[in-house]
């Protein structure tokens, strides 16, 4: 029985994702540190960019490489602290823009929020979010953010 | 007093909460995208592995031919035509290269004898020298689904041949006049992509030179039209249009990957002559082009032994197929060293792939050419004082890719190669004194009402298609797989562990894929992760319209249908689509000897008999191959149709005809 790591993951799952990335990367058993974030995300983890950096991830290719043995401890330590957040916590992002408290913000405010604060996204990425979650503003340009969050929480898990 | 500290604290706390929440959304999005990207790459791996597994068979086929030739010859009873059929390069000697050179193509002119154009022909009547106006007419007739008459096709090919013979193995292009040159990669019969390129970048002319880097034909539905348009541009601008040979400008590849079949369908009773001309003309295509002595363009790549001086001296015409020893050679073991060296030079140029790891290894994935590493590229470029290698040969999601620290640029011009939405196509404009490379990407649209699909939807569609292809391959080996699964199922529970399931698939199918990740898309699993292996086959099975021979034989023939098809086409020397019952039986017997399958002679005879519907002793092998079906328990047909290039029908396709109008 493969070693269980937590959250339904076993060591073979980690190896599989590692091998998958290695498959595309020359099959030499090493993966560039700039891929660490994506590796973790494909395992179902939710590290922020800051956390990925802290764990040894880099921004650009060619700086550092990880072997499977070096990658595994990162997974183990992140599994302990991983947490996607609750519905209420997601709502916090929108509350300050929701002046009337009716559950709506404008599309422009949503875009502003995601592109100028925190770990910024680009305009293209926010457009993609709207398209992929099938979220569009009503005639007044308003979005019901609870619906959006519900879709986010339902998730698009790739292993399912 | 002012703002009380507690209010400030609350405000600060809220700001922090909000910031954390925003980061949560951004983090969620990044995870979502990472998973989508992984699915996309996984899907890509499936398509590419299936494609290369087929091609690997192909170069194993070259050993296969040698072995078959051996067994046919040693057998003593085999008819000479059959033996000759299997040595494609040797057939060249029927039309003697020496006399062709001397007579300037006169022997081939005989092909035109007796070929008259019927009054019912509605296509263009070509005269040479070709003019822009005639190209216009050719394009218009293609849009009306007409075929250029065999007579004009052959005349065009004769003219192409005449010019190609004057060109060296390596051509040298200069941007001194035009200040730029455009390089296009694989087109593979995707006419809509060729039109898109001309629409975006203009037609070839003195001021607008082009290098077409091979693989014009096979796989797509309009190989004939693509190559005719390219050849027309070539004869009008022989000094501005550079045509490099690809690994698909090769008779054996064309037998297997669709070009010969397409020619047979479009030219009917004249197809034998047209096919023969193409076979000859392809062998005259140059092998590489060098731009301003700085950039080398060739189809596959290089190896640690690639030597331009050696390449320049080769008689490239000896290779009707690069998969077989050149010219008169009967058997590899008797080949002389010089021939072997030259053959390897050609194979490496047309079949190699760059890899991120240093060094040079034989390309086992493809079965031919080499894997070359960054160090090989660096030393080759340095030795020849080049700054860049541009090549094609591999499909890329973005249509292009830089590797080896920017020393190698792959450009691939067939968009939607695996499936609608699978990849972009691209071409490269090299411009200015510094020879800067600018890449232009595009994707042929599907229909006039094509709406913008979201990234996720596109991934879903392409993934579904890849999984379907994979399932077909799995189904074709059902019996072998089931027996492997059962070996692991010691307690007869119907379930086996994930590792056992993955191992069995990899061993039997011989393709490397992330099986664990794909598991849930292929079979049902228990709660503890074990696989209910029978669900791998989803209650589907392979059937053949004429089979009464039992599922095992049908499945076996289905699994080897590509090899079978290649053999049939080789035997069918008049390219009629029909072979005799005896030849059909011979083909199956040959296959059995080479591959590990068990069908006895009696079954073969039964199959042949049941296929001879008219009882006239001949078999339509196209029909035989198309009669395979994948059905479920209710008899419903789940066979995947070949995806057609519908974009040609679309009114949205840029009108090259109008483009031509502007230029006149």
Automatic annotation (TrEMBL), chain A:
**What is a single Pfam family found in this protein's UniProt entry?**
EF-hand_7
Which molecular-function annotations from GO does this UniProt entry contain? calcium ion binding
PANTHER family named in the record: MYOSIN LIGHT CHAIN 1, 3, MYOSIN LIGHT CHAIN ALKALI
Keywords for this entry? Motor protein, Muscle protein, Myosin, Repeat
The protein's organism comes out as: Dreissena polymorpha (Zebra mussel)
* CDD domains xref list: EFh
Instruction: Name it.
Output: Sulfhydryl light chain
A single Gene Ontology CC annotation of this entry is:
muscle myosin complex
- Locate the EF-hand domain: which residues? 85-120
Please describe what this protein does.
Answer: In molluscan muscle, calcium regulation is associated with myosin rather than with actin. Muscle myosin contains two types of light chains: the catalytic light chain, essential for ATPase activity, and the regulatory light chain, a calcium-binding protein responsible for Ca(2+) dependent binding and Ca(2+) dependent Mg-ATPase activity.
Checking Gene3D superfamilies in the record gives: EF-hand
């Amino acid at each position: 029985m493969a070693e269980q790591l937590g959250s339904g993951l076993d060591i073979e799952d980690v190896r599989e994702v590692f091998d998958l990335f290695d498959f595309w990367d020359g099959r030499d058993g090493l993966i560039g540190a700039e891929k660490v974030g994506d590796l973790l995300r494909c395992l179902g983890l939710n590290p922020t960019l800051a956390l990925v950096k802290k764990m040894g991830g880099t921004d650009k290719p060619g700086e550092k490489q990880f072997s499977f043995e070096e990658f595994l401890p990162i997974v183990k330590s992140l599994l302990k602290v991983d947490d996607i957040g609750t519905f209420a916590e997601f709502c916090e992002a929108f509350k300050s823009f929701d002046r009337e408290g009716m559950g709506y913000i404008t599309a422009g405010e949503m875009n502003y929020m995601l592109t100028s604060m925190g770990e910024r996204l680009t305009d293209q990425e926010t457009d993609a979010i709207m398209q992929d979650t099938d979220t569009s503003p009503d005639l007044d340009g308003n979005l019901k953010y609870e619906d959006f969050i519900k879709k986010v929480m339902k998730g698009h898990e790739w292993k399912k | 007093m002012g703002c009380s500290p507690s209010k400030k604290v609350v405000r600060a706390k809220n700001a922090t909460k909000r910031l954390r929440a925003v980061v949560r959304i951004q983090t969620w999005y990044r995870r979502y995208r990472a998973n989508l990207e992984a699915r996309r790459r996984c899907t890509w791996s499936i398509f590419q592995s299936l494609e290369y597994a087929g091609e690997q068979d192909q170069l194993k086929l070259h050993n296969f031919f040698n072995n078959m030739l051996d067994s046919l010859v040693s057998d003593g009873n085999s008819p000479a035509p059959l033996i000759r059929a299997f040595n494609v390069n040797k057939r060249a000697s029927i039309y003697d290269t020496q006399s062709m050179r001397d007579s300037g193509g006169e022997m081939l002119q005989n092909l035109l004898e007796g070929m008259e154009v019927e009054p019912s022909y509605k296509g263009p009547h070509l005269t040479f020298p070709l003019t822009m106006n005639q190209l216009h007419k050719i394009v218009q007739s293609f849009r009306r689904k007409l075929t250029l008459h065999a007579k004009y096709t052959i005349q065009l090919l004769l003219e192409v041949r005449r010019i190609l013979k004057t060109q060296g193995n390596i051509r040298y292009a200069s941007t001194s006049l035009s200040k730029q040159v455009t390089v296009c990669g694989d087109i593979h019969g995707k006419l809509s992509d060729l039109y898109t390129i001309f629409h975006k970048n203009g037609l070839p002319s003195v001021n607008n030179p082009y290098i077409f880097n091979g693989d014009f034909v096979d796989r797509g539905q309009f190989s004939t039209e693509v190559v005719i348009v390219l050849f027309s541009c070539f004869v009008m601008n022989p000094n501005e249009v550079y045509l490099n040979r690809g690994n698909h400008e090769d008779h054996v590849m064309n037998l297997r990957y669709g070009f010969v079949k397409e020619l047979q369908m479009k030219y009917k009773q004249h197809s034998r002559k047209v096919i023969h001309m193409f076979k000859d003309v392809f062998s005259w295509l140059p092998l590489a082009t060098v731009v301003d002595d700085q950039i080398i363009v060739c189809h596959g790549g290089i190896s640690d032994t690639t030597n331009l001086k050696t390449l320049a001296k080769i008689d490239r015409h000896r290779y009707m197929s690069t998969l077989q020893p050149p010219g008169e050679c009967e058997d590899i073991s008797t080949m002389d060293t010089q021939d072997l060296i030259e053959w390897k030079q050609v194979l490496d140029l047309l079949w190699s792939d760059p890899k991120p790891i240093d060094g040079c290894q034989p390309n086992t994935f493809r079965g031919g050419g080499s894997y070359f590493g960054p160090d090989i590229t660096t030393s080759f470029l340095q030795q020849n004082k080049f700054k860049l290698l541009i090549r094609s040969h591999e499909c890329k999601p973005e249509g292009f890719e830089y590797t080896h620290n920017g020393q190698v640029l792959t450009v691939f011009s067939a968009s939607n190669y695996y499936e609608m939405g699978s990849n972009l196509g691209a071409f490269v404009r090299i411009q200015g004194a510094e020879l800067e490379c600018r890449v232009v990407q595009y994707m042929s649209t599907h229909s006039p009402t094509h709406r913008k699909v979201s990234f996720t939807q596109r991934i879903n569609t392409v993934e579904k298609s890849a999984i379907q292809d994979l399932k077909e391959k799995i189904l074709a080996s059902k019996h072998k797989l089931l027996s492997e699964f059962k070996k692991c199922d010691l307690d007869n529970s119907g379930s086996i562990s994930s590792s056992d399931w993955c191992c069995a698939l990899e061993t039997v199918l011989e393709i490397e894929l992330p099986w664990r990740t794909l598991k849930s898309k292929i079979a049902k699993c228990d709660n503890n992760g074990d696989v209910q292996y029978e669900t791998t086959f989803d209650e589907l099975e392979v059937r053949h319209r004429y089979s009464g021979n039992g599922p095992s034989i049908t499945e076996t023939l289905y699994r080897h249908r590509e090899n079978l098809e290649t053999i049939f086409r080789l035997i069918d020397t008049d390219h009629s689509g029909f072979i005799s019952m005896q030849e059909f039986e011979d083909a199956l017997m040959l296959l059995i000897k080479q591959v590990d399958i068990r069908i006895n002679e009696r079954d073969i005879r039964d199959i042949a008999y049941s296929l001879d519907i008219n009882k006239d002793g001949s078999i339509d092998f196209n029909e035989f191959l198309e009669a395979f079906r994948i059905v479920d328990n209710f008899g419903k047909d789940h066979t995947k149709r070949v995806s057609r290039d519908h974009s040609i029908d679309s009114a949205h396709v840029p009108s090259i005809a109008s483009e031509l109008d502007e230029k006149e």
